[in-house]
Amino acid sequence: MRDYMSTEFGQVTPDADLLQVQRLIVEQRQRFVPVVEGDDIVGVITRADLLRHLVSGGRALRQPMDQVLAGDGIGLHPRHVQRLIQTRLPKRIQELLSQISAVADETGCPVYAVGGFVRDLLLHKKNLDVDIVVEGNAIAFARRFAEQHACRVRAHEKFVTAVIIFDDGYKLDVASTRTEYYLEPGALPNVEEASIKLDLYRRDFTINTLALALNHDNYGELLDYFGAQRDLHDKAIRVLHNLSFVEDPTRMFRAVRFEQRLGFKLGMHTENLLRSAVEMDFVQRVSALRLFNELTIILNEDDPFPAISRLDELGLLGCLCDQWRIDARLKEAFRQAEKALHWHELLYTGSPVERWVVYFLCLSQPLSDDAMAAVCGRLSVPQRWQEILVDERCRVMKTFHQLERDQGRLAECKASELSRRLKGIGDELLLYAMARTRSDDVRLVISQYLTQWRDVKPLLNGDDLIALGIERGPKIGEILDCLRDARLDAEVKSRQDELERVHFYQMS
Hints:
The protein is of the alpha+beta class. Helices cover 51% and strands 11% of the residues. A 7-stranded mixed sheet has the order 5-6-7-4-3-10-11. A two-stranded antiparallel ribbon has the order 1-2.
């Protein structure tokens, strides 16, 4: 239990000022502060004592306005937050917040924007995923909003949550304020209704505990019970309490993701708690599918390698697969994968790519087919992705190795021959091959297939061939394939050329 006891503990003297006490309770998250005179403890100031003194009407703690530091987000006045909304958010989101505010006033429920949206607003980062919490019935609020703005609502009665779906597909998550408790480490939480403060307390890290009031009378007011603004200023990732990683070990993966995405660092005490949770093997108490989901979110980051490297440093990567290794080769593979993915995005092919699949393949590059199958089974990877990561990977690697063996003569091969080799391979595996190969010739062949060859089709179709007297059956497909090859190799250019080629096939 020693690992979960706080060692960074402050105390004050009887003549300490209020700001010193506030810093210890809010910023250092101490539940109480001993008042010490000499060697004797003469009193204790609890969090409740401080709240009673500083807070009226249940509102959050704030820094005195003379502590405001320009541009760092500390102690922001509502008008400053309103200015951020006006200058940093697109008109669509500004209008949405205004509409939410109007419905909040109609229903008489306190309503807040919470979490990452508020955090990123203060950090001047783009985040248009608005999460709303209601001190009241979230489903009733969502339905009232939808009635006024012609939206659809998908309600979840069990958790009193709802999703408002707009005509253009934009989604707004709405939840009732609630608290959670865990019966055992790694288990899913039990949920009960609660105040906004308790709702924020259940969240993973202090930087995600900000709430932005949306009702008209206090629009733009920030609720910050747990020192979130100070941690944003300090660029620190800190948990709210010592058992955070024990209750939900997936928070360890999220801690690393936020640390790397935001350019922050884990607080010393938080990192010690994380390492202790890893040593005590709490990760193994989490369902495999939840671990897989956390990994895919990390691999979908713009640059996932720093997070993957940090997972390895903290011992978390080995909890997922003890054969994954971080080295210079993997770093280069991730770099090449990033270049390939960026190149593919610029093609605007209309064919979406699952970024995490490409990086997962890079991460698993040294694994044998059996080892890859074992990892996918261990992480409960859904079957449709296992088919790509295991079965298709095995087949594609044979093609890839053949291309590398032939790299010296690829320029002499016909486009139709190379296209047949790559036909049917998914974009993720093709981009992985581009990232993995050291051969510019192989990379060129794959890029030509994606940009020039894959979508080539003959001008004639099956109906045309039937009209020319060719019987229905496999022969139709064979001739169309031959016409496609001829077009790839520039042997035919017009419809007339294809008709002549078909006549030749009929005569032969």
